[in-house]
């Protein structure tokens, strides 16, 4: 299903002839795979027991097919080079995995060596560090910033995973790297329905002022009430992000299988498709695939 072909016709002396042209590719820009290990994956609490199990590509493939999604970007969940190899191995086996956002120790004095090693794999597209678990000021550490600076020379992107309270720091951080492709994961995890949305929106607008920064429309259901959320709960957050970044710098991501603690794949996808139903065809295509393809060089 990697190319959906649509029939078009053109008039020629009163007759119509079929013309095969490729439909725009749809991409899920953010999902995970793992072999569940209770001792390692402590972030998957008993409250999240529905995802305390293995998740592999053959489980995701039918969900992508059902929603006419052509491919995905696999993002690290564990902070180890073993995780990066694990994802690259899956990407080698499954063509629908178009890219991998892995992990490397960006603070290591040997980061150039590790980047040289991993960039031999064409499907490695970016790097992520779980900054949401780090103390205040982490983004300003000299060693970490040296690692971020090294990414651009290797044509790698950076996924910025932070929580709402880290936004002010993130705004200053992205200004330091104006040429580095950066994407904010999960709308910076606003406390949907619970927090100060006005402050969050102002800080997201400040992030968007840097035109090298994108935002993923992902991870929303797990930031709302898992059992009682309604689609309209997300509208003001999506409004704020689209106003700040515009439809050319946002991209759809499922955050599967993490989303399963609060919604099915279909439910979370419907939130986005319903919201963008009023957008133009070109804007829909950008959000559902073209922006991810351009950002990650898929």
H and E order: EEEHEHEHEHEHEHEHEHH
CATH fold-level assignment: TIM Barrel
Give the CATH class: Alpha Beta
Mean pLDDT: 93
| CATH homologous superfamily heading | Metal-dependent hydrolases
Helical proportion? 25-40%
CATH architecture: Alpha-Beta Barrel
List how many beta strands DSSP finds.
10
Q: In percent terms, what proportion of residues is strand?
A: 15-25%
Oligomer: single chain
Question: What's the number of helices?
Answer: 9
Q: Give the termini distance in whole angstroms.
A: 16 Å
Largest sheet: 8 strands, parallel
Unreliable residue stretches: 1-17
Which outline best applies? globular
* Estimated radius of gyration: 19 Å
Helix/strand/pairing class, anyone? alpha/beta
The number of domains is 1
Structure notes:
This protein is an alpha/beta fold and 298 residues long. The protein has one domain: Metal-dependent hydrolases (TIM Barrel, Alpha-Beta Barrel), CATH 3.20.20.140. It is built from nine helices and ten strands. It has helices at 57-66, 81-93, 111-118, 142-153, 167-175, 197-208, 235-245, 265-275, 281-296; strands at residues 5-12, 15-22, 27-31, 71-75, 97-102, 124-129, 157-160, 182-184, 213-217, 250-252. Strand 3, helix 1 (57-66) and strand 4 form a beta-alpha-beta unit. Helix 5 (167-175) runs parallel beside helix 6 (197-208) and helix 6 (197-208) runs parallel beside helix 7. The longest helix is centred in the last third of the chain and has 16 residues, at 281-296. The chain is globular. Mean pLDDT is 93; it is low at 1-17.
